[in-house]
Amino acid sequence: MDLKQIAKDTSKTLISYLTYQALRVVMAQLDETEPKRSYWLRKFTERESIQNGEAYLQALFKEEQRLAFRILTVREHIAEQVADYLPEMLRTGVQQANMQQRAQQLERMTQVDPASDSGLGDLHPESNELEGDR
C-alpha cells in the first residue's frame, strides 16, 4: 500500500471537488449579477466536463480567462475555510460510516430466513437458548 500515492490521489480528487463547488458559487453569483454570463458558463460546463477540475479550468482559460480566475479565487477561499476542519471530519466520518456499515452487515448476518424451516428458531449466542424458551 503506497500511502503517499493514496494521499496524492485523494488530494487531486478533493481539488477537483473544490473546483466544482467554486463553480457553483460563481454561477450563483452570476445568476444574480450577470445572467447572460451565467448562461454562457452553464453552456460551457455542459460542453466541458467538470469531473477533472484542472482540465476544466484549462479549457475555461482558453475561452473566458476572467471567469477562470474568479473560480480559482473562490476555490482557494473555500480550501482555506475547510482546511482546518477537514482532517478531523474525515477521520470521524470514516469511523462513523464504517461502524454503520458493520452494524448493518451484522444485522443482515444474524437475521434468520423465515422460509427455512429448521425448527430451531432464533438462537441467541449469549445464552444458547431458543427464543421461544424465554
Give the proportion of residues in helices: over 70%
Q: What structural category characterises the helix and strand content?
A: mainly alpha
| Oligomeric composition of the shown chains | single chain
Trace the largest sheet across and list its strands: 1-2
CATH topology of the domain at 3-82: Non-ribosomal Peptide Synthetase Peptidyl Carrier Protein, Chain A
CATH class descriptor name of the domain at 3-82: Mainly Alpha
* Contiguous uncertain segments of 5+ residues: none
Largest sheet entry: 2 strands, antiparallel
Instruction: Give the name of the CATH architecture of the domain at 3-82.
Output: Orthogonal Bundle
Let me know the average pLDDT.
88
* Share of β-strand residues: under 5%
Q: What's the total helix number?
A: 5
Q: How does the overall form come out from the CA principal axes?
A: elongated
Helix/strand order, N-terminal first? HHHHHEE
What is the terminal-to-terminal distance? 49 Å
Task: Give a count of the beta strands, DSSP E runs of length 2 or more.
Answer: 2
Rg (CA only): 25 Å
Attribute tags:
mainly alpha, 5 helices, Non-ribosomal Peptide Synthetase Peptidyl Carrier Protein, Chain A, 134 residues, elongated, two-stranded antiparallel sheet
Give an overview in words.
The protein contains five helices and two strands; from the N terminus they run αααααββ. It is elongated. It is mostly helical. Helix content is 73%, strand content 3%. It has a domain of 80 residues: Non-ribosomal Peptide Synthetase Peptidyl Carrier Protein, Chain A (Orthogonal Bundle). The model has no long low-confidence stretch (mean pLDDT 88). Strand 1 and strand 2 form a beta hairpin. A two-stranded antiparallel ribbon has the order 1-2.
